[in-house]
Amino acid sequence: MAYRERPLSPHLQVYRWQVQMVSSILHRATGVILSLGSLLMAWGLVALAAGADHWATFTHAARSPLGFLVMFGWTWALAFHLLSGLRHLSQDMGVGTSVPSFTRSAWLAIIGSLVLTAIVWILAMQKWGGA
Question: Is the pTM of this model over 0.90?
Answer without folding.
Answer: no
